[in-house]
Structure formats: C-alpha cells, structure tokens
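Data availability (excerpt). The following record was deposited with the supplementary files.
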Amino acid sequence: MSTQPQFSVSVYQNEFLADGASEVNAIVTVTSTGAPAGPAASGVGAAQVIMVDCSGSMEYPSTKMHAARAATKAAIDAIRDGVPFAVVAGTHVARMVFPGTEYLVPADASSRANAKAAVDRLTSGGGTAIGQWLALADRLFTGHENSIRHAILLTDGKDEHEQPSDLAAAISRCEGRFTCDCRGIGTDWVVAELRKVAQALLGTVDIVADPSRLAADLQSMIENAMGKAVADVRLRLWSPQGASVKFVKQVEPNVFDLTAKRINTGPLAGDYPTGAWGAESRDYHVCVSVKAGSVGDEMLAGRASLVSVDASGAAETLGQGLIRAVWTDDAALSTKINRQVAHYTGQAELADAIQEGLEARKSGDLDTATAKLGRAVQLAAQSGNTDTAKLLATVVDVDDPATGTVRLKARVNDADEMALDTRSSKTVRVGKNNPTNN
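Predicted structure:
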C-alpha cells in the first residue's frame, strides 16, 4: 500500500498595516515530508524523456559529443525500473534514438542496454531547432498524463533553424504538460533561450562548461526526478471580494515568477502551478492588494492552499495557511518589515540586478553594469549568499562589498559570465521564527 507525502503550509508576515495601507506581503512556506521517495513508493507513475543535441557543432570539439553520449547513458542507468522512457536526438529536426518509434518503453535491464547501444551510435550533423525537440517530447508524454513527466534538454548552441515564434509556440504548447531541466554545454548557447524553456516548464537551467562533469549532472537530474512523489501540485490562492493578487513568486530554492501562470478556479481564487514534489521545502512570496482599511479593521487577506490536481481536474487539498491584515495607528507595528519578506525581496532584487548588469555589460553600458553588479555584490553580502558572491567575483573586482563598490574586470571568461547568469536566481534560505499560522 502506497504512502502519500504529508504537506504543511506556514505563513510568515507582518500583518499590521498603517491606516489607509492596501498591500499585504507574506512568505508562504510549503514543506513535504513523511513519504518514501519516488513515484513507485507513492503509487504514482513516472515518465522520462532525454533530448540530446546532435547538431554539427557538437563535434567541435569532439569531446562534447563524447561527453553527451556518456552522460545520456549515465542518465539511462539512473531511471528506475518500470519507468517508461525514451531518448530523442535533436538537430534541425527531432528523431527517435530509442525506441525506434514514438512511444515510451519501461526501463529494465534489456531496454537500458538497447537504449545505451543506440546512444553509442549517435553522430553529429545538422542544425538546431529546439521547438521541434520539445514537440516530440510532448507527443511522447501523451497517455502518461497521470504520471510525473520529466524531460532533460541538452544543447550546445543557439536555436538557429526555426523562428523565435516557433520556439515560443512549442514552449506554450508544452506548458503544464511536463517539466524540463535544461543544460547548456560549452559557451556557444544562449542563456536567455534556455531560461525561457526552463521557466515555462518549471525546470532548471545551468551551464556545464566542462564536458567531463556532464554525466554526473544528468544522473543527478534523473535521480531528483525519480524522487518526486506527487505529480501536479498547485498553490491555490483565494482573496476576498475587492482584493487582487499582485504577484506570486517562488523565492527559494530559486526565484521563479509564477504570476502570469495563474489559472482561475473561481471568481475569487486561482491556481499557480508548482510542478511535481518529493521530500522538500519551497518558499513563495505572495503580495495581495486589498481595499484600504481604517485603524481597528481586520480582515482575511488571503488563503493559501496547496492542492494536488489529477488528469480529470479533480483537486485534493494538501494543506493551507492564512494571510491576515490588521490596520493600526501604532507605527512601531506597521513599519516593521517581516524578516522573511525583507530577505526574499532582497534575493529577488539580487537576481534582477545580476541579469540587468550582465545585459548592460554586453551592450556596452559600463556605468549601468557597474552600478547593477555593485548592487548585486552588496545584496549578496547582506544576505549571506556566498555562492553568488563568489560568482560575482569572477566578473567584477570587489573593493567594498558592504557598499557595493566594484570595478568591472577587463577580461571575463565566457563560462564564468554564463555561470553567473544561469545561477543568478538561486537563493539562500533565511531562518524562520514565529509563523503567523501553521
């Protein structure tokens, strides 16, 4: 008999507002515990597709294609017994590597051996049309709607053999259909392109500058996917008549704006997709605009529920927390910024500052680049985000982290700049005390 994970929802906020104030901020922490890891343990199915770039550029240098084959085989070995999978070769078209036709095959010793033999025969040639790769993955997942559907997309280059609108349309069709983790090998791919894919499909994006590290990275992604136990989990927000949700952002383990992904479930409620869950914890920043109140007024500004939705659309509530608003004339109460809200607001600003600073640097606006990256250094130091601080130090010389005084480096390694860009949204967690409710 399978055991489902147990979910808890906690809300951290300063519920006190000044007379006439109308914006309520809260950090909603969702934690999943208590269940055996993985789809098999929880009784939920899983499905896996691996998309491997086989374009001509993968042979320059040849170590990239060699590493891609080795990494794909390591990923195949990490797929749990019984999980249906397929391998796709991506060029200016998408074609099946294993199996030979468009369907998924359950993983066992025989299918893994046959898939790895097919991967060994992969050669490079042709262009890059990532939208076509995603479209094939989407077709492969048809019929597995009740499963935890996960894809890996590996590329070394730009999406040059289709129009940007083609890629955008393919991404749009795949939203809600499966999650996709993206990896760029080398330094000739475009971070913004893969970020669009990863953010739309609730996945991650990162650089693997050293081909020898690719196998461990893909294996880790598969193991993480195999550890998920609940397929389609959503953060459902109810707000009262006259109120509206201003934004919803995942802020830990990385910054991820979910606002535009809202699916209305009624006149006062909407769902924000969060993908599949295993044993883990994530934080969300919720901002609600309410009708301005007067001193002494109190109201329920929002209800944050976690729901699991099956393929038929039926929802099961897994946990919930309440967001409150209390108007006061006590300035000591209303002006106090909740520690968690302040911390994650800074982490979101840190991600924006890095991305805007790098873009300004590329466009030759060195003053803006210096200002933005200096602010990023300051925010990283204030929040204790040492990993991001180290990455920033590869593109700027830091004179004073406390004030954000920096100088742009004259020479920056492409891989270092791309690593900072792809990892700019990774955050650090703040310690939590005194939740308003559990």
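Summary of structural features: The longest strand covers residues 315-328.
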